[in-house]
Structure formats: C-alpha cells, structure tokens
Amino acid sequence: MAMSAARMGAGDWALLGVLSVLWGGSFFFAKIAVAEIPPLTLALGRVALAAAALGIVLRARGLAMPRGCGPWLAFAGMGVLNNLVPFTLIFWGQTRIGSGLAAILNATTPLWGVVLAHLLTRDERLTPARLGGVLAGFAGVVVMVGPAALAGLGGETAAQLAVLGAALSYGLAGIYGRRFRGQEPLVTAMGQVSMTTLMLVPLALTVDRPWTLPMPGPASWAALTGLALLSTALAYVIFFRILARAGATNVVLVTFLIPVSALLLGTLVLGERLELRHLGGMGLIALGLAAIGGRLPVLPGIRGSWIRQAGSSRAGRGRAG
Q: 295 to each of 95, 133, 207, 211, how far by Cα in Å?
C-alpha cells in the first residue's frame, strides 16, 4: 500500500534549519581547503575523518554495523550518489567558478528532487503547488545571491555542468536513501561514509598523488576538520533522520535554506549588511517552502483553489492507496 508523502512537523523544520547551517558551512570550509588540497584528496579526507568520528560514537553507544553483503552494497550506492559524485564535482567546480554561482546551481537540487520523486516513487507525486514552490524557492536563492553571481554563466561551462551534475546526484540520493527508513541514522551515516572512503582511496592516490604535494597549512587542516566533523559526520546523521521521517522531497529543501543560513551567520557574526534583496529572496524562499509543505494560506471566501484542491486530491490518493 502506498503511503502519502510525510508532512514536515516543527521538529523536522528545526532539524532542516540546523542541517542548512552545517552544509552552508561546507562551502566556506571547502573554499579554504581546496586552495591547498586537491579535490579528490579533500573529499577522501572529509569522509575518512567523518567515518573515524562516527565509529567512535557508534562504539560509545554500543551500536553494531549490519553484516552481509546486501547492506554494504546499499551503503556503497548511497556513498556514490551522496558523497563520491557530488563532493568531487562541487570541489572541482569551485576551483573554477565563484561560490555564489555554485550556490545558485546547487539550489536546483529540490527541482531535480521533486521531478525524480514523481517519476521514481508512488507516494511523492508532483503537484502544481509543489512545483510552484520549488520554482519560487529557486528564484529566492537567485535574488538573495544577487545578479552579479550570474555574470559567470557561460564562462566555465564544464565547471557549471559539474555543479549541476552534483545537484542531480543529490536528488537521486534522496530517492535512493528511502531504503534506509527504519535504520538507525548513525549506522546509515557510518556505512555511507565508510564505503565512500574505500572508493576514494584508489582514485585520490592515482589522480592527485598527494604525497607529491606540499603539506597544507593550519588553515586548510582546520577547514578539513570542520568539513569532516560538522558538515559531514553530524550533518549526515541529521540528514538520514529527516529523510526517514519526512521523505526525499522534503529533505532536499535544505538547499534553499543554505544561502539563508550563510547570510544570517554573516550578518550576526561578521557584521555584514542585510540588504533589501536579501529580505526579498528570503520571502520567496519562505513562500516556496510553504507551498511545498501544503501550508500556503488561502484567502477567506475563496474555496476550491488549485492549491487546496491539489492537497485534497493528494490526501485522497494516499487514503485510497
């Protein structure tokens, strides 16, 4: 029997906000580290350190990893879609395009997510409200980052396609990760980064030959540590918890919140100025999230709006399924 797509509760939104801060920091950490550490080596260091940290937590909590080939093959598939492909593509892309343009291209993840969920699942269907919400959220990201970031469009085509490919891979990961529902998120996160580490070792050694490079400085090591412990180990535990509770379409909405988190952190911590376009972009993102979550307010006296009709028909299909 098909289940209707899960609805986000207050706790899920709070976790999504925390995740947006952790993943928003990954762009900052990566921009620092990639100046001295090649992309594949950086990706390897990120997942290897995360696996070590999660292993310590697993042992402390008395949790065991599953046995047999099946679960580990599933972890490997998740590692390819959620780590190996997007990490290397984004890190490589960031060596050639600015972080603002990378953030805009990465914000296509929810668009890929809702389309893929519609095509590949039975319970997360595409509705007019959901599609409109994704487009509004994407527009909000573009407005927030600003038109200056779009000036780089067309210059480094390969790098831009790489970041778009990473966004597509993240969308696929959200669908693939549904199979881990019911499993402890800490175990899933550990399995994923462990298998990614094994896959990245031969690639990094062959392509980057890190032993031939100068030793990175303290700033790069600090950025790598933050990338591994905060933006990977902790972030993926939260990611799999949200995925299990709220579904693939909802978990990829974090991409819209990442620029908001980065902007608010810059304003509060670094004293950066909040501009009118930032507020406008956040408003569009909020509108988009409300539409996707089925929480758009309907004006009094207006009945049968297409938004409410879409929500009712979706609920009806869920009950009928």
A: 39, 11, 48, 53
